[in-house]
Amino acid sequence: MNNKKSNEIYTKRLLLRKFQICDFEDYYDILKQEEVSMWLGTGKRKSLDDVIRIMKNFEKHWVENNYGVWAVTNRETNKLIGQCGFNILEDTKETELLYAFDSKFWGKGYATEASMAAIEFLYENFKLNHVVALVYPNNNRSSNVIKKIGFEYKGIEEHFGVELLYYKLKLDKSSFK
Questions:
Q1: What does the angle CA 9 – CA 6 – CA 147 come to, to the nearest 5 degrees?
Q2: How far apart are CA 6 and CA 148, in angstroms?
Q3: Is 43 left (phi over 0), alpha (psi -120 to 50) or beta?
Q4: pTM (2 d.p.)
């Protein structure tokens, strides 16, 4: 069940909700993992200051756009296991899907489950016609998630000073069958 007013999304196993101050420590624990941070932005491990800046940017994006990046929690344990949501790329103004999960939870389908729910929420509430995803060329796990969701590979583009695989998902009713 998706609730636009509260900006919460429930899936079978997950709750996507806005980040809260109490998430900081767990979120920092996720982003300081080298195997996680190497695939994000510039690819460098995140510091405490980086995480503060990231969380402030998430909140700013929500205020300005009424959507953004959600904290992803396990519904059974209420434990923060990652992030999933959207950012607007500064250079192209396209809406980018982004996600990152604690490496302990990789390979369990959480990125796919959260991403599909987030994309459906975005389409239903904001009527965008497409979403993009940027993936490091050797990040096979992420490429597999993106392809499973239905994104099409469009080429290589430079973002954040890094060459990344550029994928695009056209959004229409057939995207959610």
A1: 25
A2: 28
A3: left
A4: 0.91
